[in-house]
Amino acid sequence: MAAYYLKKPFSLFRDIFTYPAAKISSMDYADYWTARGESSWTARYDVFSSLIEPGTSLLDIGCGDGFALKYLAEKKSVSGEGVDISEAAVRAATNRGVKARAADITAAGFEISGVYDYILISEVIEHIARPEDLLRKIHGHFRKGLIVSIPNSGHYIHRLRLLFGRFPVQWMLHPGEHLRFWTLRDFRRWSEWLGFRVAGIRTSTGVLLLSGICPALFADNLVFLLKDAGGVQDAS
Question: pLDDT tens-digit profile of 196-231?
């Protein structure tokens, strides 16, 4: 990313000082998946792949159009299934050969029925108002790990936007996409409060080399491997 800004310095100015235009008029996930088009490979998929063993079972919560599940099935022979709120996304996943169903993961009645080696939640919890409710339901439903990918609100571009009086931009199509925000330190404390232990932190995008040395500042995406640590801790 640093090299990108050296080649295109106006892009750095744009990312810090401008306000992107919304591409959809309201935050409806049926419209969202139609407008964004088909998913493509992203570097975090290789991070997910590095965290799981071949032939394991996986539940992808917020699977979208199934691209990640398809990729992991081909690369690691993962036996996976997904769930997503968008009927349009689930149809796309099914057409891709991925087992998926439509469900509202924020609903009080949403439950996870099976037990999987891994549960994956990729770029999802920042989109829901009460992710604590979802993560509490995950306890006891994975054997090896919970993998959570989130945008890093502590990334230096976001810090510079705040310095100059502008809120961080982390959305693609509509400003209402993201409802919750975490830095690396925030997420670690938050997940521990919910009864998880951070077993690993990976980065997929950001400033090369520096994102691995200081992910809190230079990684714009963070991938956490969580283990079940027992009960909920004191939130103070």
Answer: 999 999 998 766 678 888 999 999 999 999 999 865
In a domain, 57, yes or no: yes
State the pTM of this model. 0.92
Can you tell me the distance from the alpha carbon of 1 to that of 153, in angstroms, rounded to the nearest whole number? 16
Taking the C-alpha atoms of residue 152 and residue 103, their distance in angstroms, rounded to an integer, is 27
**CA-to-CA distance for 230 and 95, rounded, in angstroms?**
39
Structural domain contains residue 223: yes
| Total structural domains within the chain | 1
Structural domain span for residue 56 = 24-165+186-228
End-to-end CA separation in angstroms for the chain: 36
> 142: exposed, middle or buried (C-beta count within 10 Å: 0-12, 13-18, 19+)?
buried
